[in-house]
Design brief:
About 45% of the residues are buried. The chain is built from eleven helices and eight strands. The radius of gyration is 17 Å and the shape is globular. The protein has an eight-stranded parallel barrel with strand order 1-2-3-4-5-6-7-8, surrounded by six helices. It has a single domain (about 5-255), classed as Aldolase class I (TIM Barrel, Alpha-Beta Barrel). With about 260 residues, it is α/β, with parallel strands linked by helices. The longest helix has 19 residues, at about 180-200. The chain binds 1,3-dihydroxyacetonephosphate (13P). 1,3-dihydroxyacetonephosphate binds near residues 174, 175, 213, 214 and 235.
């Protein structure tokens, strides 16, 4: 049984004071539920300390980071290391988000170095994959996913695979309001699990969690979360409002019932 993981990727939004008031509203919306879920909030670096202390009031909540550098330390102006995140008690780090790949030139090789560095430091990577619209229209979905998975996870030891959460985020569904349908998402998730099974063996592939991301909102969360191979959501825009993020969590609970 894979525990569902619902994560809020705030991207470059919300100051640390806005994060504190978000958290107060979120806590009152979410009440005491959700023992069978994992919830992660992934703010900008500057809001991490405030959320770490706020999250002591909510034991099932984890805090993540949106990016990191693969080197341990050194002359890398503007970068943050995995050890710096660990020192703040950060648990998860997003690696290979499509915005990093397309806007900041991250290649599969860079993503792979970050995955390795995160694991070495004891952080759990949320490793993102997904095709562009052009690649989908060109019938290349499987080829792209296979490449991103095999290159991004190259050298990962089988024992470490379950530290990783894979996020399937089709680029055409990110921030567009056009989510993949539950059937489209399920098809890609099932393919991802097949590739992981080829790379790491079937028992590990059956246990690894695969989140869906791309225009998830309270209205579509339940149907998505009912799919056999969808183990959670990575939510952008709809996670910026604590009520709508709480709504997604409630719909996920309903899907589990
Ligand atoms: P949206 O939910 O805004 O489409 O963003 C998805 C995403 O990129 C999460 O990482």
């Amino acid at each position: 049984m894979r525990k569902k993981i619902i994560a809020a990727n705030w991207k470059m939004n919300l100051t640390h004071t806005e994060a504190e008031s978000y958290f107060a509203t979120f806590l009152s919306e979410i009440g005491q539920v959700v023992n069978d879920l994992e919830i992660v909030i992934i703010p900008a670096f500057t809001a991490i300390p405030a959320l770490i202390s706020a999250s002591e009031k909510m034991p099932i909540l984890r805090i993540g980071a949106q990016n990191m550098h693969w080197e341990k330390s050194g002359a890398f102006t503007g970068e943050v290391s995995a050890a710096m995140l660990r020192a703040l008690y950060v648990k998860y780090v997003i690696v290979g988000h499509s915005e990093r790949r397309t806007l900041f030139g991250e290649t599969d090789e860079i993503v792979n170095r970050k995955v390795a560095a995160a694991l070495e430091a004891g952080l759990r990577p949320i490793f993102c994959v997904g095709e562009t619209l052009q690649e989908r229209d060109g019938g290349q979905v499987e080829e792209v996913l296979r490449r991103q998975l095999s290159k991004g996870l190259a050298g990962v030891a089988q024992k470490d695979l379950l530290e990783i959460v894979v996020a399937y985020e089709p680029c055409w569904a990110i921030g567009t309001g056009r989510s993949a349908t539950p059937a489209e998402a399920q098809q890609s998730h099932s393919f991802i699990r097949t590739v992981l099974s080829e790379l790491f063996g079937s028992p590990a592939a059956e246990r690894i969690r695969i989140q869906y991301g791309g225009s998830v909102k309270p209205e579509n969360a339940e149907d998505l979360m009912r799919q056999k191979d969808i183990d959670g959501a990575l939510v952008g825009g709809a996670s910026l409002d604590p009520r709508s993020f709480a709504g997604i969590i409630w719909r996920t609970e309903a899907a589990l019932a």
